[in-house]
Write a structure and sequence with these properties.
Number of helices: 13
CATH topology of the largest domain: Beta-Lactamase
CATH superfamily of the largest domain: PAS domain
Mean pLDDT: 78
CATH architecture of the largest domain: 2-Layer Sandwich
Oligomer: single chain
Structural class: alpha+beta
Number of strands: 13
Number of domains: 3
Length: about 525
């Protein structure tokens, strides 16, 4: 076999699965071919355009069907009535002339019949007397095949002929018979042309409607898809690393609101990324400082520059403790966010709990050159973890000390509301703006980075406070003004003894029910 003979055979079998190919490969190819003709394989613009065109086509078809039904039922009746009216009019005119001539066979008497055929093309008229004679018949021709006999083309069917009596003095003297050539429903040629032209016009109008609907659907889909494409483009840009990409969509419709929500999400992601980068820088700086101090001191002692005395060891120990505090702060926040640390649920007297914290922080506040005041209402009870509440309050006090200049004042108060207990820590420090108040609980965010770094903070203390309060079903409120201090207030639900008793009774009932089962 030559190569020229082999090539056509190869081309013929190229689309068929090979003998050694598994059936799965053939099924995959069939599936891919099927997917090519699925509705979902078209673009949204194409689908909307086709949908508008289909709606217009269906509407046109329904309209044409309804009109056709009406015309077939009523237009025929209308044309038949016109022919019957013409037939009756011709009969009346013949009757009027017959009264003068007295002879139905006279040409003057049947003249209205001849005029009817002349005025209305395509019709036949026949006038007969009561004896069966035919004074006038417009359809009679000479039949040469039958030896010159006369032949009439009057239809044989009764419903194809209009008949009217010629009455004179109440007596029928003859009949007028009228029909339309080539029509089974007394419909003249102009009427048939009008009907056909009307159908043609309707089909043309349907085609124009489909084209217009397709154009409108295309424009509508383009306008609808344009903002979606902007969102998709922004998402693609963010996926490639451009976190500044935005849709910049505005409006009151759902797509515009989707774009605004996307922009808000992108802005949040960008802020989180900035905070993460800032965290990397801050953690590297905070860990590098004590590590370098430890390394320098240890190397000096190894080289004999410094003696390994108590003073040098104390320095190394203080830097190690600083590292430990930084690591513990990060670990604490991570455990709170991941719910890895279980929360105790016990009745806590907030006033007594905070009084203990004040006692342990008085010296720390005093050494910072500040004054501390504490005021608490009695019997402020909540259900929660005492250690977590203690840590949250301690973080707020430490934050107030960090941002309050020497000579300032810190006030801690505990109040009992209708349903919530509040722990407020107010200072006379540097304060914060409204924008800073919105960001203050973000992880690793700091209002004054330079000063905060010097004080050794990482910006996680307030984030820890928020996580603790969230786990207790409360919230943290922040108020302040730049240069006039700030006030952080923790709100935690009060202890409801009756609700706890009801919950305990319902829990016992569920337990007993399980045991009975």
């Amino acid at each position: 076999m030559t190569d020229a003979e082999a090539k056509p055979r190869i081309l013929e079998t190229a689309d068929e699965p090979s003998l050694g190919a598994p059936p799965a490969a053939a099924s995959v190819r069939k599936t891919k071919r099927k997917r090519l003709i699925r509705w979902s394989s078209f673009s949204y613009t194409t689908r909307v355009t086709l949908a508008f065109a289909l709606i217009a086509a269906m509407t046109a078809l329904v309209a044409i069907g309804v009109v056709s039904f009406v015309w077939e039922q009523h237009f025929r009746t209308y044309t038949a009535d016109n022919m019957e009216t013409l037939c009756q009019t011709t009969a009346n005119r013949i009757a009027a002339i017959y009264e003068e001539t007295g002879d139905l066979w006279a040409p003057e008497t049947t003249k209205p019949a001849a005029q009817a055929t002349e005025m209305t093309s395509g019709i036949g008229v026949k006038v007969t007397d009561m004896k069966g004679g035919t004074p006038f018949d417009s359809s009679i021709i000479i039949d040469e095949e039958q030896a010159g006999t006369l032949k009439s083309f009057e239809p044989a069917e009764r419903d194809q002929v209009a008949i009217a009596d010629i009455k004179v003095d109440g007596k029928v003297v003859g009949k007028v018979r009228l029909w339309v050539y080539g029509s089974e429903a007394l419909m003249r040629q102009p009427d048939q042309e009008f009907r056909d032209n009307s159908y043609q016009a309707m089909f043309i109008a349907a085609g124009v409607a489909i084209v217009l609907a397709s154009c409108i659907g295309f424009l509508f889909a383009r306008n609808l898809v344009a903002p979606i494409n902007r969102i998709m483009g922004a998402a693609r840009a963010i996926g490639k690393g451009d976190l500044s990409a935005r849709t910049n969509l505005t409006g009151e419709d759902e797509v515009a609101r989707l774009g605004e929500t996307f922009d808000a999400m992108a802005e949040s992601v960008e802020k989180d990324r900035d905070l993460e980068r800032r965290l990397t820088t801050d953690v590297a700086h905070e860990l590098r400082t004590p590590l370098m101090a430890i390394q320098a001191t240890v190397e000096a002692m190894v080289d004999g520059v410094y003696e390994a005395d108590e003073e040098r060891l104390v320095t190394v120990n203080s830097e190690i403790q600083r590292l430990s505090r930084l690591v513990n702060a990060l670990l604490k926040l991570s455990r709170l966010e991941n719910r890895a640390e279980p929360m105790k649920e016990e009745v806590v007297n907030v006033g007594d709990l905070i009084a203990g914290i004040i006692a342990t922080h008085e010296m720390f506040v005093s050494d910072s050159g500040l004054t501390l005041e504490y005021d608490a209402q009695p019997d402020v009870m909540v259900v929660g973890d005492a250690d977590m509440i203690r840590q949250a309050t301690a973080n707020l006090i430490s934050n107030a000390v960090r941002y309050t200049p020497e000579g300032g004042h810190i006030n801690v108060s505990v109040r009992k509301g209708g349903i919530m207990a509040s722990i407020a820590v107010k200072d006379t420090g540097i304060g914060l703006s409204k924008e800073e108040a919105r960001m203050v609980f973000s992880r690793f965010w700091r209002a004054d980075a330079g000063r905060n770094r010097e004080s050794g903070g990482l910006g996680v203390g307030l984030a820890v406070v928020k996580e603790i309060v969230d786990r207790h079903g409360g919230w943290v409120q922040v108020e302040g003004e730049k240069g006039k201090g700030a006030c952080f207030t923790i709100h935690i639900p009060l202890y409801d003894e009756e609700a706890q008793k009801r919950a305990g009774r319902s829990g016992k009932k569920r337990t007993s029910t399980k045991k009975n089962r």
